[in-house]
Structures are given as structure tokens and as C-alpha cells.
Amino acid sequence: MEPTPEQSPHHAYPDHWEADVVLRDGGTARIRPITTDDAERLVSFYEQVSDESKYYRFFAPYPRLSARDVHRFTHHDYVDRVGLAVTIGGEFIATVRFDRINEQGRPASAPADEAEVAFLVQDAHQGRGVASALLEHIAAVARERGIRRFAAEVLPANNKMIKVFRDAGFTQQRSFEDGSVHLTLDLEPTAESLAVQRAREQRAEARSVQRLLTPGSVAVVGVGREPGGVGRTVLRNLLASGFTGRTYAVNTSFAAGTGTLDGVPAHRSVGEIGERVDLAVVAVPADRVPEVVADCGENGVQGLVVLSAGYAERGTEGRERQRELVRQARSYGMRIIGPNAFGIINTSGTVRLNASLAPESPKAGRIGLFTQSGAIGIAVLSGLYRRGAGLSAFISAGNRADVSGNDFLQYWYEDRDTDVALLYLESLGNPRKFTRLARRTAAVKPVVVVKGARHSGSNPPGHAVPVSRIPDATVSALMRQAGVIRVDTVTEMVDVGLLLAGQPLPDGPRVAILGNSESLGLLAYDACMAEGLRPRPPRDLTTVASPQDFRDALAEALADRTCDAVIVTAIPWVGENGEAETGDGEVLAAALREAAADSPAKPVAVVHVEMGGLAHALAAATSTAAPRETRRPAGPAAAPTPPASAPRADDAGAPAPTAPDRSAGGSSAGRIPAYPAAERAVRALAEAVKYAQWRRQAAAPGRVPEFLNDTIDEHGTAALIETLLGPAPDPRGRPLTHDEARELLARYGVTVRPALPAPDREAAVAAAEKIGYPVALKTTAPHLRHRADLGGVRLDLAGEDALRRAYDELTDLLGTPAELRPVVQAMAPRGVDTVVRASIDAAAGAVLSFGLAGAPSELLGDTAHRLVPVTDRDAAELIRSIKAAPVLFGWRGAAPADTAALEELLLRVSRLVDDHPEVVSVSLEPVVVATHGLTVLGASVRLAPPPARGDLGPRRLPSY
Fold this sequence. Notes:
33% helix; alpha/beta
């Protein structure tokens, strides 16, 4: 919306304040600034507010707004007077306004930093979290305009509004004056306010997904009159799944009085149905979708599954069509799966929803599956079906213009029907948020991810999301840090998912191997060694082993306290007639399940070759044996406990999830996964071992040592950065000089050894005399920096003659001093050369990296990464996670390096970039780590205006 001439040209309409939000009940609404064009909307809104709510707002009967009121409430300068409205379908459902005031409570301008705030929510929309969302956004606006406190007068009987302020998590003061409650809120975000905001976000987004997966009624729009076609196929699948709700067929081409189609009511529009419709499946050409969305929105439909193609996957025109689709749907409070989606499935017995193109619903199970590709979705469904596995829910989101994998992580976090979340992702729309949600979800249930489009350098067609510049290896490391199990293929995703859904987590890496094939056992042993597990020598039961022999051997292995997991290998045994008996898989499966059910809870995986019926028999739920105890490693069985001052779950967020209950019907307990190859079973088990270790560590997270606070000058660094950037900083930023970088890093306790310029031989000699021999002479030209292999460094120069010879050699070999930019530096104690870097990616956030210096590490990509801020545990793991880490710990008899000093350096650099987002990159190279202490020989720092942090602002849906 454009500002009118009456508005100050210096304060144009702030379109960046516009936002779509998800409300407490899962519906959406739009928040935007109020303009002079909103007079009629404001009057209409006010007429629908009850007299009681008007009284609470104005402290007196106030039946209607005067012309002066309307003018006042629609004319704002967007600095000292600001009004925001919440709209659905273009109409106001709530408003908020602040006016800047001085210490006497009178209207003021900057530098006054307090404002009076007042809310009004239509009665029909109270209880949906509208005021809470508005408070987040108006507080962010106020902070942007230099306002630090809100003052509010509330009548004591207005308990709902008092609760909104009380539960926001801001620091506040309350007093009772002149018959009203006077509230003062400090608008500086706190850990509590951020926790409240994220809890509300989780509850709202989870509820929005729940509304899509558990509709009471579904309309399929675009059902053809003849068999075949997308719409008719979805209707057939919906009916075949036994959907428990009401179903309708909709097509504008139906003749009047069509009555029914395939046994369900047939209508020409959603509005004609005359009953509530919760979910609409849209299967019409893209050019007809807008009229369908309008029909659904005007008749109260809560969500859409858009199967129609012809959107962002078709180029620029389609991308704009997709944006308009999302804008239109959200304006009515609806969320969208799609467009270009394959559909959704919910196997719960209370719903039995198959609103997809999948001809058969998978059976009920404990795995939730989200994909961004219909083809991949079909492949995974087929693979699960062949292996006798089931799903709790399936979502194929297509272009995922609205509902994404992040939303389903919010839902699965507390879903009691889902024990494992599988995601096939081709792009990450909000990597910061994904990492945060994945870490929280992984603390209570496994999250397994396959990331497609890893090497294309761009997003797949249809995925209009920010592009991250960080390498795929870095993305993988950050996922691991968050507890995500990242695998390379869809087959591996299914393999890992089946093991985690049916088996307890292992306590460690010790693996027992038993079976009736020595060769298969050796293959399993080799695979365990390759995956970093600790296998025991395989136990060969010989080819004459009976199912009872398998049962006894498995029970013995499971009872052994030196064993954490068991791999069973099985081939058909030879009968008395000399022929292989392949049909006894069911008998062997029963024996293995019986042994597992009666033994301590440890994971079991079976590797089989041509054992008829074994895989399906192992996957079948046990009906007679009691479910095995599902022991999980010591770790968070629920979400992290909020601070004592945080609102209760019923105030600010969903209840923390509990450990999955596998004793109910449909439980995966007792289902033993079977694999056709030893390598696949071992890889799945290895991922379970690593995940279990992460869970144990997550139970006692690391910390940032307090001693850092005594050696860090945070405020002085902020002032220095402000000076270095200047009053009008270049958006592209600027690199710091060597001396500037040394001064900045020193304020965080990072000492960089000085390097004196040597533009000629005499200057080099003078520098060496100032520093003291022995010295190093090295070039700093960009093409030679840190390339000792090219001859640009001379070390241990003990005197003037050696220095002059080295200077002449460098200039004769590599170029003129002006080209080489040589410097002289004091020698450092011998040690291991390493590299420490930190950089900020606009999409993923700040990343800390570590590796050994030199071309081999760079060539092999042997670099470890962690998201900032890192803890002491992160720093220790960062050093130990590179392949060349043994070099730091006394490899081949060398003295171990001072890794404690290295960990401290990593913590200091992490703290620097976390405290000061203007520090967009830091590179310390080389960092020589000696037996005692370390020396930073080179440093480069780049400053720039900090990138926007959408994850710290008020809740809002992404708009691409």
C-alpha cells in the first residue's frame, strides 16, 4: 500500500512491517500498518466489537467512533504515532496503536523513548492469540523507532489483556493507580520473551499442520465427470482409504442436480455445499485456481492441498503466480500444501485420510515422512510397503510455497503417533530455523534427512528460497551438530528409519554378530570396522543351525553386558533332501522376535539372503509377546525445561512431549528390521549409535566458560567497530588492516603476532632488529598468502646476512617487493599449523570452522564446522572431528599439541562473532599450536553492517 500525500514524505509507508502470522488455532492472519485508506474498515471493525470490549479500551461507554477518532486512528507518522491492524479477508479483526510520550505522559518526539500502547480485538477472535502476536510486532516496530518502554493503562477487570502483557516475557512493572492497573514493559528482548515467542510459534504452527492432517470434511475440487484425471483419482483414493469424515466432489461443470458422484455429494462450488469444509484438495488448471481459492476462503475452508502445476517450476511468470496464490490463501487465513503437490496421508484410525495420488494408503506405523518431491515420495512409499513398514503421516509438498518441513518438525515434535521423522529436502527456506527446530525435535525423537540438489549450486525449479553460499559439507556438519541424522540416499533414509522406529537406541558401539553364514558374518564384521563400530568376532552357528539355535544365540548375545547391539545373518538352510529351504522365514522370524522380547532392550538387525517371508514376518507387530522395553539413552525425554519464571505450557506453548508410548496398538516395538546386504544394516546401526551418543551428550549440554568474561571487552569492541565502520558504512563492508585486526582481536583476548612491512632490504633489516632474531620473512600478496609450498616463506633467519639473502631470493624468484608485499615476523615456537575461521552466511548464520593448515587439508576438504555460539564441548569436538586430528594428539610419537589453548581460542572467536554480528568474517592462519600455548601468526577480519536476523524478530511466515 502506498502512503497518501497527507503522510510525511520523510516517513513513507513501512512495507517491511507487513507480515503473515499463524495464530494459536492454526489459522493465519496478516499484520500491517494502518493507513488513511482504512477509515471504512476501521468503522466496520469497531461496530462489531462488543460494548464490554469498547469499555475496556476507552474506560467509558463508547458506542461509536467520531469522525475525529477515525482521523486520529488512521493518520500516523510511523515514528511517534504508529497503528497496526490484523486482517483476515481484508477486514480488520484487531488493532494496536502506540503514541510516544515524555516523562509527564504527554505526546512527544524523539529522543523520548517511552510510548503508550493500547489494543482492541474483535470479540469473535479473542482467544486466538491475536493480541500476543500484535504485541510482538508492535514491540519490534517500537524498538526500530527508538522506543524502549511501553506504558499501558488496563482496567482490573480486563484479565485477558493483563494476561497478554504478563505472559509476554518482557521485564515489567505493575502498579495500581486511580482505579486502573498501570503496566510498564521494557521492550528489550530477554531469554524468557524469546522462549515465550518460540513456544507460541511451535504451538501455532503445529496446530496449523494438525488442521491439515485431521480434517472433519474434505472437498475435492476439480473432480472430472468421467473416470480418470487427477481430481477423480484423489476422490477414489480418499474413499478407498476409509476416510472417517465427510467427502464432497466439486466441479463447476457439474449439471444442476447432479446429486452424487461415486457415492458422495456433488456440487458446483464449495459455497454450494452449505456445510463446513475443513480441507480442499485443488486439482484444476493453474489459471482457475484463484477462483477456487476465493470460493474456499469465503466459505471458511481451513486449508488447501494444491495439486495443480504451472507455478514457480515454470519460470518467472509461474513464480509470480505462486506468490499471488500464497498471498490470496493467507488473506483468508488458510495454509497451503503445494502447489504442484502429490498430496497428504494420515493413517490414524480416527482419520484414515489419503488425499493424495498414491493408489494405496500405507499401513499405520510410527514413521512420519515429508518430501518435496512426488517421485521420491512414491519411491519411499513403495520401499516401505515392500518391507512391511507403515507410516503415521505422509506429506509431499511439491513447491512448498507455504507449509514446509519446518512446520512438520513443529508438529512431529509433540505428535504421539510419530517416533521417527524422515525428510527428503531439496532446499532449506530458513536454515537457521530448521537447525533450531531439528535440534529440539532430535532431543526427543530421531530426525533423518536426505538433502537433494547438493551439488547443483542452485535451488530446484519451483523452490523460490534464499540461496546459501556455504558448501554442502558444512551443511552436513551443522545438521550433525543439531542431532540430525543425515544420509546420502533415500534407501539409506528408509534403512535408518526402520531401525530407529522398531528398535531401542544402543548404549554404545559394541556389536555382536551371529548367524549361519561365516562369509556373511565376515562381511558384517568388515562393515562394522569401516563405520567405526567395535564388532566382536562373528559367531558362526553353521548352516545346520535351527531357528531354536538362532533364538538361543540371540538371547545369549542380548544378555551379554559387553554387547550393545546384535546383527543376525541368515541364509537358507539345507534340508535333508539337499535342497535349500527358503520358506521357513516365518519360523525364524518368530524365534528371533521371541528372543528379543524376552531379553534386555538392545537393537537387533537382520541380514538375510533369499529367506522367503523373513522381512515381512519380522516387520509384523507381535500380538502375543509383550512389547520390549524401549530404553533410550540418558537424555532429554522432553523439551528443555523452561525457566521458573516462564509461562506454563497452557499459557505460552504446547506441553512438552513425552517419550513415545509403544505399548499401544500399532506400536513398532518388536519389529526387527531386515536388510538384504550387511553394509546397509551396519550403516543403519552406525547412525543409531552416533545419534544415541548425541542424545546422551545433549542431556548435559556444554557451556561457555565464565573466565572468558574477565578477558573480553565487549563494549569497547562495539565502540571500535562503530568507529571503523564509520557513520555511513558501505553495505559491502570493508576489510581491516593488519593493525586494525590486531587491535580488534586483542579486545577478545586473541593476540596476533605483529608483522612489520619490509618494502626493501633495509626496511627488512630494521624490522628484524626491532623484533629480534631469529625471524621469518614472508610474502603477503593474495596469490602467495599461506602458500609455503610456492616458496613465499623463509623461516629461522638467524642474522642480517641470512635475512638479506632470503630477501634477494624471494624477489628474484617471485617478483618485485611491490608485488610480494613482504613482512618480517618473529619466529614462533614449533608446533602444528592450523586454521581457525568464522563467517556469517545470510541464510545459515555464523559458522566456526577449524582444520589443519596446508594444501592437503584444503584439497581433501578436511575441515570441521559448528554453528555459533559454540560451547566448550563443541570446541573440543570441533578439534577432534577432522580426519587429521591425530596429528594434534601425539601422532607417531610427536609431542601432543596444547589442545586446551586451541579450544579456548575457538571459544573466543565464536564469542566475538556472536557478540558482534558486524564481524562478518575472521580468518586466523596460521595458528601454530605448540606443546604449551599457541601463536596466531596471521589474521584477517572483515566488517560490514550486520545482516538481518529474521529468527530473532517477531513471528512471521516466510514470503519468497
